[in-house]
Amino acid sequence: MLDVGDDAPEVTAPMATPEAAANTERGSYTSGDVSEFSLADALDDGPVVLAFYPGIYSRTCTQELCELRDWKADLAEADAPLYGVSADTPWSLLAFIDEYDLQYPLVSGFNNSIIADFGVRREESIVAGIANRAVFVVAPDGTVSYTWLATEPLTFPDTDEVEAAVAEATR
């Protein structure tokens, strides 16, 4: 797992956005509804929060993503975009955004290295290849300024710590 002070990898990956989910009927998504996420481009506007999670529609991940949805308004005041990241396909991410009214994008680690590049890819188990639950704040200069890794099921990051890390990264 990357640590504070490490350079974040240059990554691009498919991304599902709230706008695309709202503009297309669920079940009718095509590759035209999928955007491209570029960490370098996202950092042009300031720090970025990346919340890695194992997979949508699981009990714990659904709870976490909805808590992040509710917390996002506070983070918006800190002026840092939030991106969820999992191994799910972009089309299933679009359906999840639509169903749970998420107002932040979800990045697909399907068929690319973003999860491994941040060092949170689960290597062993029946579900090898999914992401471990983790949060990173990446400063505008591309360095990791905050990390959190779940060590127990049903544990979530302290959003006050994340907000403080975002505030520090904008200085």
TrEMBL record:
The keyword Glycoprotein does not apply. GO terms for molecular function: antioxidant activity; oxidoreductase activity. Residues 1-29 are annotated as: Disordered. It comes from Halobaculum magnesiiphilum. The keyword Lipoprotein does not apply. It holds the Pfam family AhpC-TSA. InterPro entries: AhpC/TSA, Thioredoxin-like_sf, Thioredoxin_domain, Tpx_Peroxidase_subfamily. Keywords: Redox-active center. Residues 2-171 form the Thioredoxin domain. This is Redoxin domain-containing protein.
